[in-house]
Design goal:
It contains two helices and 15 strands. The protein is mostly beta strands. The chain has one domain: Jelly Rolls (Sandwich), CATH 2.60.120.10. A hairpin with a 2-residue loop joins strand 14 and strand 15. It is globular and about 45 Å long. The protein starts with 8 loop residues before the first strand and ends in a 5-residue tail after the last strand. The relative contact order is 0.21.
């Protein structure tokens, strides 16, 4: 068995996790259907903007192991809705997650399976906790890249399908030049 590197360099200015075991990018084309305004999405798809990048460490997916990663969400909007991550539940509902905001201005949207949601403001230095059983999504509500570092149980798993099917109960949109949290079922 190969032992993974136990270190990675986290650039505290940019939020980039250098030497990450895996790095992913998400463009708008990877997130079709996640935004509430399909016409605005269609207009932006020609340019297919980068929404976010994500790098993570490696640890075996067994109890007791931890994984960590960093995400950098670009500034921008699809219609009036800010750029965001896809969001997910953990496949193991007893798994929580911790976020540390590094740069920019963002929000962490939490959702419970019973439809109750809340949004937490994140600025550099803010530490936020995602309780077990909550879906979570990060949103960039600023005009520069928003980055954060996160840690979770290596065996937590990811349930993206529930989010793609059901969405979140809350959305973060721009109203009068400010981020505003609205019910997901609101008209565009």
């Amino acid at each position: 068995m190969t032992v993974p590197s136990l270190t990675a360099l986290l650039d505290l200015l940019s939020g980039e996790l250098r030497d990450a075991a895996a790095t992913y990018t998400r463009r708008l084309s990877d997130m079709r259907g996640y935004y509430r305004d399909p016409e605005a999405e269609a207009r932006l798809l020609a340019d297919d903007p980068l929404i976010y990048t994500y790098g993570e460490s490696f640890a075996p997916e067994v109890e007791g192991q931890l994984r960590f990663g960093s995400t950098i969400i670009q500034p921008g909007r699809v219609g009036d809705e800010y750029f965001m991550t896809r969001g997910h539940y953990h496949a193991r509902p007893e798994a929580g997650e911790v976020y540390l905001a590094l740069r920019g201005h963002g929000m962490l949207v939490l959702d419970r399976r019973d439809g109750r949601g809340e949004a937490l403001e994140l600025r550099p230095g803010t530490v936020a906790y995602t309780p077990p059983g909550c879906a979570h999504r990060a949103v960039n509500v600023g005009d520069e890249p928003f980055s954060f570092f996160s840690v979770w149980p290596a065996n937590a798993g990811h349930d993206y399908a529930s989010i793609q099917r059901d969405g979140f109960s809350l959305r973060v949109v721009e109203r009068n030049g400010r981020p505003t949290v609205i019910p997901a079922r609101s008209a565009p």
